[in-house]
Amino acid sequence: MIKDKQDQEVLPEMLRQKIYSREAARREFGPDREFRLVFTNGCFDVLHRGHVELLARARDLGDRLLVGLNGDDSVRRLKGPGRPLQSEDDRAACLAGLHAVDAVVVFDEDTPAELIAELQPDVLVKGGDYAPDQIVGRQTVEERGGRLVIIPYIEGISTSALIERMARASESGS
């Protein structure tokens, strides 16, 4: 849900309708749904090819793809005081604009554990830079018959690498 009223008013309807409040996400995507829900999450601070490929592959694993997006305070706690580079509203709008993404919901906790427990997705997807035992929510999903899918990591494609390249280019005046 877009917090900034001005952004909410100018955001196209197609994007606005894909960004859910936590409560609306529970109603629409909760355990009583009649479709196969795929869930993934992250900060998505600087959207790049790795993100887009992960989301497209995740979408192919079910009927609807919901992306849990770390809120601004959560990103700061996880990544440090210089992050996020984009606000949660901007990051949510970018994700909502992707064809593969059916819904985006912002969560403020450091992990999506509570959101996963509330929604009980059928498939939990993460990138290949995580080992199965590191993935928050895996046990919750698997206990109810769902599955974890790890999408292979694309070498050299990451937000951190991209930010470093941009900083080097800025320093060199390129």
In short:
By secondary structure, this protein is of the alpha/beta class. The protein has helices at residues 5-10, 13-16, 22-29, 49-59, 72-79, 88-96, 113-119, 138-143, 159-171; strands at 19-20, 37-42, 64-70, 103-107, 123-127, 147-151.
What can you tell me about this protein's structure?
With 174 residues, this protein is of the alpha/beta class. It has one domain: Rossmann fold (3-Layer(aba) Sandwich). 41% of the residues lie in helices and 17% in strands. The protein contains 9 helices and 6 strands, in the order ααβαβαβααβαβαβα. It has a 6-stranded parallel β-sheet with strand order 1-4-3-2-5-6. β2 (37-42), α4 (49-59) and β3 (64-70) form a beta-alpha-beta unit. The radius of gyration is 16 Å and the shape is globular. The N and C termini lie far apart (37 Å). The model has no long low-confidence stretch (mean pLDDT 90).
Write the layout of secondary structure elements.
Blueprint lengths: L4 H6 L2 H4 L2 E2 L1 H8 L7 E6 L6 H11 L4 E7 L1 H8 L8 H9 L6 E5 L5 H7 L3 E5 L10 H6 L3 E5 L7 H13 L3
CATH architecture level-2 label: 3-Layer(aba) Sandwich
Regions with little confidence, pLDDT below 50 for 5+ residues: none
Q: H/E series, N to C?
A: HHEHEHEHHEHEHEH
CATH C-level class: Alpha Beta
Mean pLDDT score = 90
Do you know the CATH topology? Rossmann fold
Q: Termini, distance in Å?
A: 37 Å
- What assembly state would you assign to the polypeptide chains in this entry? single chain
If strands are numbered along the chain, what order do they take across the biggest sheet?
A: 1-4-3-2-5-6
Overall tally of domains: 1
Percent of residues in helices comes to 40-55%
* Number of helices in the DSSP assignment: 9
- Described by the principal axes of the CA atoms, the overall outline is globular
Secondary-structure class: alpha/beta
**C-alpha Rg, in Å?**
16 Å
Query: How many strand segments?
Result: 6
CATH superfamily: HUPs
| Strand residues, percent | 15-25%
- Main sheet specs: 6 strands, parallel
